Amino acid sequence: MGPEALFVYGSLQFPEVLFALIDRVPQHEPAAAEGWRVVTLPERVYPGLVPGDATATGHLLTGLSPAEWRTLDAFEDPVYELKRIDLVDGRHGWVYACNPEAEVGSDDWSAEDFEAKHLPGYVIRCAAWRRRYEDQQQVG
């Protein structure tokens, strides 16, 4: 059995991004993880999650199918590793957190800034990535 719930704190919080990648917005509710910080990543518009003296906020996605998990795993940057974390309310979730070797920025990432400046173009890039991914799956 694979991971049961995914804590999202960055671009995957946005319904438009989820639709571009998996054609739907799974069940979700607000969630937070204490002891984690959402930071900028050099030369990227999406963030990373690192241990820190903060509380990361986002959503907990549930009901992802195995195919959706595979798509999200393939989509995520190699800077991330999937790990299980504790949430503030006592639940657990899986999260794409930065691996220890990842280069991260010193600034906090802003979902509002991302939405205002980058979301439309990012959704287009996600849709193009998905077309390439699905084409590769049909060939392979």
Automatic annotation (TrEMBL):
This is Putative gamma-glutamylcyclotransferase. Residues 6-110 form the Gamma-glutamylcyclotransferase AIG2-like domain. It comes from Actinomadura fulvescens. Keywords: Transferase. Pfam families: GGACT. The keyword Coiled coil does not apply. It comes from the Bacteria.
